Task: inverse folding
């Protein structure tokens, strides 16, 4: 198969541009052509920044010709969820409310990627203001899953996942408040990385819930995620929760071996009410981890009975607080489901909110105790494969559950605790859809997380597939 | 704990500083129909359960300490 940047590893695109086998303009044009051809049916993008991408590609070509260095992400065309502020480019939040808003600044992470040479190719579609896991969007269209157009890709970083899975961007930025990077990544056959809370700046990102929001990356491989994290991690004084953590050479951690690591498997809760094929794939991934030298033991996580309540009690008042100003003036422009959630936030008492935040501390303490025994946890990412479009509730093992709750069942807890978590493909379901396995590590131990993910990815050695789109 | 009613939500809205919510939105809180997130009555049951937990002196969560700083 000839080299196609649309589905190539980032490291390979960077290497080919570096030694002049590939031109930045050719890479950008390849992705723009795919967007033009496929996005009318995929609705992955809200705004395509073709003109500025071509200008940047031209500048990159000039730099190459003159021998100037222009950063480790040289000319990689990327997309970002339309909650990341982009200077001079409208940033809608996927909503009519901000339909014409053009920020005068870039989000911190967009700025960092651009400084490293990456080229913004467009802003991606999402569940309105990231409130929801299905990616349905009345205003900008609802993206289908590239692997089966009759199914949902998950959300809320819906367009970001679709764009990468369909080869419309080399990587994408998303946000993850309860699983909004990891769930769509799993449902679309991608790697989705949510770093430790505070490791990557949220400056310039339209918030959903400050206490739980994380910036994340959607890529085709773990090595790609490591490359991006090296660029994006770092303290940003403009973000009050940004942490001064030492930046690591994450790529160097990818040894392919897991010797000396202990993996905990929380069978209670995280392996219950799951599609049997997803369970089998998760166990197969664990088996491969053992074959690479890891020790695998069963563990118990903190009691999950109240965790969903804690998450919602923190989320809804914070979301309402941000949106209050717009609600006073543009209330009718919000979708019904979102306004319903805001109304809920209005009637939660302050003591409830504080109690939920105290529960977050308790969960962090309990997880720290668990992480004294293990280096990593492994769970399925989602209990289910991509659902059919229009699904609102699912029944697994006889118990009905709202779709959004089911999608986030294994992911949201690690937003409460702030631990780094990543999904990677674990295999292909008999229905032809991807499945994902989730890895979780100690705070700021992304190097261990990426090392383990990369080793499992290599050991699984899944066949490379591309979605059939035309 | 008594069941939440639309009348109660109306009175709260009238008596406290609050945004304005339509009848439809208040109806949906009392009897959820959107199916996107847990409904309000179910959430209140969860909050009631939380209220009975003794959290001692545990403070609310803040930023994470940077590595190497305890």
Result:
């Amino acid at each position: 198969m000839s080299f196609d940047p649309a589905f190539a590893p980032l490291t390979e695109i960077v290497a080919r541009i570096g030694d002049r086998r590939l031109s930045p303009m050719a890479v950008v044009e390849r992705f723009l052509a795919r967007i033009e051809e496929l996005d009318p049916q995929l609705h992955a993008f809200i705004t395509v920044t073709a003109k500025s991408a071509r200008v940047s590609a031209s500048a990159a070509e000039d730099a190459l010709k003159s021998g100037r260095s222009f950063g480790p992400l040289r000319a990689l065309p990327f997309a970002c969820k339309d909650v990341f502020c982009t200077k001079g480019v409208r940033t809608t939040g996927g909503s009519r409310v901000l339909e014409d808003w053009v920020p005068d600044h870039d989000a911190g992470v967009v700025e960092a990627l651009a400084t490293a040479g990456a080229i913004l190719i467009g802003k991606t579609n999402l569940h309105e203001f990231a409130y929801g896991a299905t990616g349905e969007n009345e205003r900008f269209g609802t993206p289908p899953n590239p692997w089966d157009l009759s199914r949902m890709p998950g959300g809320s970083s819906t367009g970001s996942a679709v764009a990468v899975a369909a080869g419309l961007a080399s990587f994408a930025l998303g946000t993850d408040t309860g699983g909004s990077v990891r769930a769509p990544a799993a449902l679309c056959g991608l790697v989705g990385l949510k770093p430790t809370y505070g490791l990557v700046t949220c400056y310039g990102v339209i918030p959903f819930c400050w206490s739980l929001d994380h910036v994340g990356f959607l890529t085709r491989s773990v090595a790609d995620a490591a490359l991006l994290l090296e660029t994006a991690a770092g303290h940003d004084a403009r973000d009050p929760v940004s942490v001064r953590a030492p930046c690591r050479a994450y790529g160097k951690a990818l040894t392919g071996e897991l010797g000396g690591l202990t993996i905990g498997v929380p069978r209670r809760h995280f392996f219950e009410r799951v599609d049997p094929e997803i369970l089998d794939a998760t166990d197969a991934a664990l088996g491969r981890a053992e074959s690479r030298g890891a020790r695998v033991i069963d563990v118990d996580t903190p009691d999950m009975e109240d965790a969903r309540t804690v998450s919602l009690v923190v989320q809804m008042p914070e979301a309402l607080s941000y949106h209050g100003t717009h609600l006073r003036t543009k209330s009718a422009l919000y979708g019904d489901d979102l306004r319903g959630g805001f109304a809920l936030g209005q009637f939660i008492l302050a003591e409830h909110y504080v109690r939920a935040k105290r529960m977050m501390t308790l969960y962090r303490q309990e997880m720290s105790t668990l992480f004294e025994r293990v280096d990593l946890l492994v769970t399925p990412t989602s209990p289910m494969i991509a659902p059919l479009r229009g699904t609102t509730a699912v029944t697994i093992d006889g118990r009905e559950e709202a779709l959004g709750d089911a999608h986030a069942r294994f992911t949201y807890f690690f937003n409460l605790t702030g631990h780094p978590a990543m999904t990677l493909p674990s295999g292909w379901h008999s229905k032809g859809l991807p499945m994902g396995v989730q890895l979780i590590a100690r705070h700021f131990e992304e190097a261990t997380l990426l090392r383990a993910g990369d080793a499992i990815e290599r050991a699984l050695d899944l066949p490379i597939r591309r979605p059939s789109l035309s | 704990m008594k069941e939440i009613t639309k009348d109660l939500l109306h009175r709260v809205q009238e008596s406290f500083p609050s945004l304005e919510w339509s009848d439809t939105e208040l109806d949906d809180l009392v009897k959820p129909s959107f199916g996107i997130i847990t409904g309000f009555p179910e959430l209140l049951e969860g909050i009631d359960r939380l209220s009975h937990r003794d959290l001692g002196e545990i403070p609310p969560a803040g930023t994470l300490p940077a590595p190497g700083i305890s």
